[in-house]
Each structure stands twice: as structure tokens, then as C-alpha cells.
């Protein structure tokens, strides 16, 4: 099982292949935002990687980050926990002014991922 370390929160073993956004909310039990429900339509589920950043990203993630001109972070809704990683959860419900974190993402990545080699 991969180990997920969340800065200032702790270490967690997560099911291999679990979406990072779900590991953050269910396993680490933090208030990670996911306003679009994990469909790569917004950038509220942003995380910064300290270690273990995946080499690949979905085309949807690449396009969303580019369209919003976001750099230096990744979308947790588009990442699978398939190896050890350490992240900083930078997009949290606390203090953001939203009523809730968003609609709970499905277990599988959506839209259907097409892997992209360049980060």
C-alpha cells in the first residue's frame, strides 16, 4: 500500500489506485476542496508536491492548469495514489468562505484519463 504523507497532518497508508483527493478527504480526514466534484473543471483541489510528484498527468489536468494559468501545483482529483508521496494541502475549506468542500468525487478519475508525459 502506498504511503501518503500530508505536511502538518501525518502519514497514511492508502489503497493503491485511490484518487488523491479521496485519500486526502477520507484517509487523512482533511477539508480538501473539490468544488467541481473531481472532474478537472476547477482548480480548488490543488496540492503542492514535496516528494513523489507523479511523472504523468491527465490531459484534462494539463488543460485545466494551463487555462487557469496555474503553476507549481497539481490537481488532486486527477492523481492516483500508486506510489509514496508527500504533499502540502493548499486548498482547504477552512477560511475559504465556501459553505462546503464540494460534491464528493467518484472513485474513478473523470473525465476518462488520457495520460500525458510532460508535466
Automatic annotation (TrEMBL):
Signal peptide: none annotated. GO terms for molecular function: iron-sulfur cluster binding. SUPFAM superfamilies: 2Fe-2S ferredoxin-like (SSF54292). Residues 99-109 have a biased composition (Basic and acidic residues). Coiled coil: none annotated. It holds the Pfam family Fer2. Residues 2-93 form the 2Fe-2S ferredoxin-type domain. PROSITE patterns: 2FE2S_FER_2 (PS51085). Residues 99-119 are annotated as: Disordered. This is Na(+)-translocating NADH-quinone reductase subunit F. The lineage of its organism: Bacteria, Pseudomonadati, Planctomycetota, Planctomycetia, Planctomycetales.
